Amino acid sequence: MPPKIKILLVDDHPLVREWLANLINEEPDLEVCGQTGNAPEALGLIGTFLPRIVIVDISLDNGSGLELIKNVKSVHPKVDMIVLSMHDEMLFAERAMRAGAAGYVMKRDATDKVLAAIRAVLQGATYFSNAVNAMLAQKLVKGPGDQPTAIAALSDRELEVFQLLGRGYSTRQVSEQMNVGFKTVHAYCARIKEKLNLASINELAFHAIRWHESQQPR
Prior knowledge:
This protein has helices at residues 14-25, 39-49, 65-75, 89-99, 110-122, 130-142, 156-166, 171-178, 182-196, 201-215; strands at residues 5-10, 30-36, 53-56, 59-60, 63-64, 80-85, 103-106. With 218 residues, the chain is of the alpha/beta class. The chain folds into 2 domains: 5-141, Response regulator (Rossmann fold); 156-215, Arc Repressor Mutant, subunit A, CATH 1.10.10. Helix 4 crosses helix 6, helix 7 (156-166) packs across helix 10 (201-215) and helix 8 packs across helix 9 (182-196).
């Protein structure tokens, strides 16, 4: 009997990890080899277990899912990454693809699509929704088209800062979470304020919290 295909789970919600583990371990040829909600720990587990696929959320403890994907693909290029997130795929799926992800599944659709994504990736394909594929095809054929929304215009790191502010982090806590200097965070905030046409850090925090709330499942 061939060895089972190893899947690693990286999500900061233990209940989500438990549900995913139960779903995947019911498949006769798949097994969850490890799980964590912490980005630095995830890198260690990937080096230890060498999974075939990593399922990762965008928002993690002590790091960003997008940055984790970039780091993993630079060190372990044969490991495939699938994003499973509550965050709007129209904003994050293309970023995830650019970072190196082979698939993107919204958590609200996860029950019937996680296994489909895993199977597609194992066959050498990518797995993105029809809406995302249509958006990417339009960009390929016609170019970017409309100007991007202000939030979509943020860089990956600026968006990470914006997300953390939306979760209620102070700029000092953002600095610690991202493992960058305090001045670097303030530079990111300055660029975000400019792009979003906001006057102050308080206005930025309010805007970020409102946006974060809009991303939560209803």
